[in-house]
Amino acid sequence: MRPGPRAADVTSRCRLCGKQAAHYLNHAKMHLCENCFIKYYERKVYKSILKHNMLRGSRKVAVAFSGGKDSLALVKALHKILMEKFPEVELEVVHIDLGIPGYSEESRDLVEKICDNLNVKCHVYDLSAEKGYVIPDFQATPFRRRICGACGTIKRYLMNKIAYKIGADKLATGHNLDDVVEVLFELYLRGSVEEMVRIRPVSWSTHTKLVTKIKPLIELTEKENLYYVLSHKLPILSAKCPLSKNSRALKRKKLMNMIEAEIPGFKHTFYKSHLKRIMPHLRDSIREPTLIECKSCGMPSLSETCSYCKLISKLQKSQITHISNE
Ligand code: SF4
Ligand code: ZN
After folding, report:
1. Which residues surround the ion ligand 2 when the cut-off is CB under 5 Å?
2. What is the DSSP-derived secondary structure letter of residue 294?
């Protein structure tokens, strides 16, 4: 097997300025120093924003900030790009404290510290205090094997709700090329064409309570996000979510990295072919679903009860069964 992405060695020179290189980009076969890498990275984010019209008519962007390297890179780069190129657009951060011991405390501290340094307004939503449950509660339910799926439903629902409440017209997430390729791979395998249509750089709002979602990092890899964070000497979380061990998404990412090591540029090609060659056909043949309001919470839903309310009702039922069986 060919070696995977490698770090720059001391003799490598930056392709753009000739100084000592700090990073090597496998897909582009290019060495860059820290300064040139920062410029390259921010230019790519800016180009994605322009290419997909992500900030059309924007006044306030909410950024979903978990504390991980991807959302950290997003907050830092977007904050700079907005100040320089879109000074009329406000940026606010939303963080959900999931109540995961040994992980959520560190994530929350990092988020608050970064927002303080950037002087950015930070909305912290404490799941335990606000809703009376935490993500580890799902371990004692039938969802224990799909805990990341349950966590994802909760985060998507709350992020949208908070962004809507604070008056944001866009919700930016740190989804990157690795995330998109991993999900697309699974959807292609299953032939889930309706779901494939939703994997796009911008998901425009189709309901007054649904905030438009944007993915400014969609053409950047996790490795590039890490390099950006390192180049700025920003702190990196030492804790990992202890619940992620059996995540199928992580296994698929490993597989995608193995293919990338054999075929450099595979992830970029896969995503670009999907967007340019497949999406136009899918868009014509698949209609956007009509959203109604959930009868329990009033938020946008595909059916009478939204997936969040269904999930929480199942959690409550299993907790009652659990308690009554003791
Ligand atoms: Fe939630 Fe899974 Fe991420 Fe942990 S790894 S924060 S459980 S989605
Ligand atoms: Zn609901």
Report:
1. 294, 296-297, 306, 309
2. -
What is the identity of the amino acid at 31?
H
Query: 44-288: which CATH topology?
Result: Rossmann fold (3.40.50)
Task: Note the ligand closest to the C-alpha atom of 179.
Answer: 1
Using the mean position of ligand 1's atoms as its centre, give its distance from the Cα of residue 28 in Å. Answer: 31
Task: Indicate the burial class of 171 (C-beta count within 10 angstroms; 0-12, 13-18, 19 or more).
Answer: buried
**213 three-state secondary structure:** strand
Please work out whether the CB of residue 156 comes within 6 Å of at least one atom of ligand 1.
no
Query: 148 in ligand 1 pocket by Cβ < 6 Å?
Result: yes
Q: Would you say the CB of residue 150 lies under 6 angstroms from ligand 1?
A: no
Q: Is 127 in the pocket of ligand 1 (CB under 6 A)?
A: no
CA of 34 to the centre of ligand 1 (A): 31
> pLDDT of the chain along its 326 residues, tens only?
333 335 567 689 999 999 999 999 988 889 999 999 999 999 999 999 999 999 999 999 999 999 999 999 999 999 999 999 999 999 999 999 999 999 999 999 999 999 999 999 999 999 999 999 999 999 888 887 789 999 999 999 999 999 999 999 999 999 999 999 999 999 999 999 889 988 999 999 999 999 999 999 999 999 999 999 999 999 999 999 998 876 788 899 999 999 999 999 999 999 999 999 999 888 778 888 899 999 999 999 999 999 999 999 999 988 765 544 44
Distances (CA, A) of 135 to 8, 194, 244: 39, 29, 12
Residue keyed to tokens 């307004």:
121
Count of CA atoms in the C-beta half-sphere (13 A) of 59: 6
Domain boundaries, the chain: 44-288
Residue 257 corresponds to which amino acid? N
Question: Is the whole-model pTM more than 0.85?
Answer: yes
Angle of helix 177-190 relative to helix 248-262, nearest 10 degrees?
A: 100
63 ligand 1 Cβ < 6 A: no
